[in-house]
Design brief:
β4 and β5 form a beta hairpin. A 6-stranded mixed beta sheet has the order 1-2-6-3-7-15, with helices on both faces. By secondary structure, it is of the alpha/beta class. The termini are close together. α2 packs across α5. The protein has 2 domains: 291 residues, Aminopeptidase, CATH 3.40.630.10; 128 residues, Alpha-Beta Plaits (2-Layer Sandwich), CATH 3.30.70.360.
């Protein structure tokens, strides 16, 4: 038997050792443990138990959120917190090649419970679908990582690792990524990394980003009966919105990268909240609005901030009232830069090779219009990273969120085979 043939056989052994029922059970336990961003302590306790159960050496890292904020590359937040708990698991030798598998365990709030037809924390199973908040974003991906690592032990391959598997479970991805950045500062970096966010088992090699902002828009109050004596902040907001719409069209129209143009509008700008007014018969003299501004592929969040400030400054200058009473803009919440790895990089090529052998078809390499922890590993951790995971992102953050347990197991089989290819000598 040639070395190549033997190695492929070991990859198959690892993939075949994945226990789909165990993965579904682990996923159910994770979904049943609420973990809204800012409140990840309980789920991280469970993750530590599961890490130990699959054979990982467990390390708990507690970061002071105030200390995290002092990092010059701090990526923002949107939810209050008094803890930043990180769980790291290790398997193999620490003196060789290191590969990193990452999942976040925080989830967005449920929203209006009346829009759900199932218990958001019930992990109800209907056929191959498992329902619940975080099922697809991204506790399904975390379960895939756990099942893949467990399979190496079941196939008696853990002792043959010529390097180290480092698994990181991080908080605070949904509101910026400070959990991932803190993990990187604690040494969670490597030669290659996979984040198991939902990608429908496609290999994501690039993603855009976003910044959230607050606009304060002035006006001048007046009685409604003499409204022309006042200046409506609402009309001034319309001036700013038109400027943002023109900017959005220009930025998206100038993009030529197929990974991004495939999405039609990869760099969206929206106004998400509007607050203002104090009396129905008074001209509004002040509005505060919050929105989201896309970060283009190749940009950092600071680049996008400069673009946004320019748009607002130009709009102020074009309006007689705003010229003397300018609207102001400030960043709030998450700050997601973009990132990418080349399509011919050994990481996406090797993962696609393994996926093709495991799935029977080659997954495409794609780009995404959203921000992700990938950019922190690539930009701050100097770790080549791709995103590859189970489930459809379109059901993330929605009522009746779900993931296919078969997809979770399939992802685990690919990961298990990939770990063998990366770390087991032929």
């Amino acid at each position: 038997m040639s070395a190549t043939t033997r190695h492929r056989e070991l990859e198959r052994q690892a993939a075949d050792a994945v226990d789909g029922a165990w993965a579904a059970g682990a996923l159910s336990r994770l979904v049943r443990t609420p973990s809204i961003t800012g409140e990840e302590g309980a789920v991280q306790d469970l993750v530590a138990e599961l890490f130990a159960e699959v054979g990982l050496l467990v390390e708990r890292i507690e970061v002071d959120p105030a200390e995290a904020r002092r990092d010059p590359d701090w990526p923002g937040d949107e939810m209050p917190r008094d803890r930043l708990p990180i769980v790291v698991g290790r398997l193999g030798r620490g003196d060789g090649r290191r590969v990193v598998l990452v999942g976040h365990v925080d989830v967005v709030p449920v929203g209006d419970p009346a829009t759900w037809t199932r218990d958001p924390w019930g992990a109800e199973r209907v056929g191959e679908r498992l329902y619940g908040r975080g099922a697809v974003d991204m506790k399904g991906g975390v379960a895939s990582i756990l099942a893949a690592v467990r399979a190496l032990g079941a196939a008696n391959l853990a002792e043959e690792l010529g390097g180290e598997i480092l698994v990181a479970s991080v908080p605070s991805e949904e509101d910026g990524g400070q959990g991932m950045l803190a993990a990187i500062r604690a040494g969670v970096t490597g030669d290659a990394a996979i984040i198991t966010e939902p990608t429908d088992l496609e290999v994501v090699i690039a993603h855009a980003g976003a910044i959230t902002f607050k606009l304060t828009v002035p006006g001048r109050a007046a009685h409604a009966s003499v409204r022309r004596e006042g200046v409506s902040a609402l009309e001034n907001l319309q001036t700013l919105v038109r400027a943002l719409e023109r900017d959005e069209a220009e930025r998206n129209g100038a993009e030529t990268e197929p990974l991004m143009t495939a999405h039609g509008l990869p760099y969206a700008t929206i106004i998400g909240t509007v607050h203002g007014g104090s009396w129905a018969s008074t001209v509004i003299d002040r509005l505060e609005v919050e929105g989201r501004y896309g970060v283009k592929l190749g940009q950092t969040w600071r680049d996008a901030e400069r673009d946004l400030l320019r748009v607002i400054d130009d709009a102020n200058e074009s309006d007689p009232f705003l010229r003397d009473h300018p609207a102001t803009v400030e960043l709030t919440g998450g700050r997601f830069s973009s990132s990418r790895v080349p399509p011919d990089h050994p990481l996406p090529v090797g993962l696609a090779d393994v996926a093709e052998a495991t799935l029977g078809h080659r997954p495409p390499m794609t780009g995404e219009p959203y921000g992700a922890d990938m950019r922190l590993l690539v930009n701050e951790g100097r770790t080549p990273t791709v995103i590859f995971g189970p489930g459809d992102k379109r059901v993330a953050h929605s009522a009746d969120e779900w993931v296919s347990v078969e997809d979770v197991a399939t992802c685990a089989r690919v990961l298990a085979a990939w770990l063998v290819r990366e770390l087991v000598a032929p």
